[in-house]
Design goal:
single chain; alpha+beta; two-stranded antiparallel ribbon; 19% helix; elongated
């Protein structure tokens, strides 16, 4: 009986010390319009590299990897991507082959500048600035598919501890041996 109390106590202690599951989601941004396209991902918990709240809110992410295909070439890196509300363009970025592109349309995020929450869905954007490949397109913001769940090391440790304590409890239990002789 004593071993059962010890087992339950250790299991409760181990469960209480486990960290909570991470809730970060990866957001996928896809744009198609005319002879240009871009695609990149951001972690929804990633804080912006810079913020500006003068006459609206703007958030900036630097050195964003992705695929940026423009009229004058393509690149796998945007030096700056910014999202804005109010009078600012919903999305602007600078990437080789694209140059500086500024798109108009609905706000793509809400929340504070330091903790933006992106709106999922499909948005029609019009190009604000003129230049090569002038024209708008469709931007889709979606949650990227997640891979299979992999237990954290603490979960593995708790599982191994549980098996070990179960084996110990089975080994130490009282055994009654009865012997019968054949007649």
């Amino acid at each position: 009986m004593k071993i059962r109390h010890i087992t339950v106590g250790l299991a409760a202690l181990a469960a209480a010390s486990l960290p909570g599951a991470a809730s970060a989601a990866t957001l996928l941004f896809d744009f198609e319009g005319g002879d240009r396209s871009f695609s990149f991902t951001l972690d929804d918990t990633q804080a912006p590299d810079r913020t500006d709240t003068f006459l609206g809110t703007r958030i900036f992410y630097n050195n964003v990897s992705g695929s940026f295909v423009g009229v004058n070439g393509s690149s796998d890196l945007a030096s700056t991507i910014s999202f804005g509300t109010g009078p600012f363009a919903p999305i602007s970025f600078t990437a080789q082959g694209f140059g500086f592109s500024n798109f108009g349309g609905p706000d793509l995020f809400n929340g504070s500048a330091t903790n933006p929450m992106f709106n999922l869905g499909t948005f029609n954007l019009s190009q604000v600035n003129t230049g090569p490949g002038t024209g708008g397109g469709v931007l889709t913001i979606s949650q990227a598919p997640m891979g299979g769940a992999v237990p954290e090391p603490a979960a593995w440790a708790l599982m191994i501890l549980g098996f070990g304590l179960t084996g110990l409890a089975m080994r130490n239990r009282n055994r009654e041996v009865s012997v019968r002789f054949a007649a």
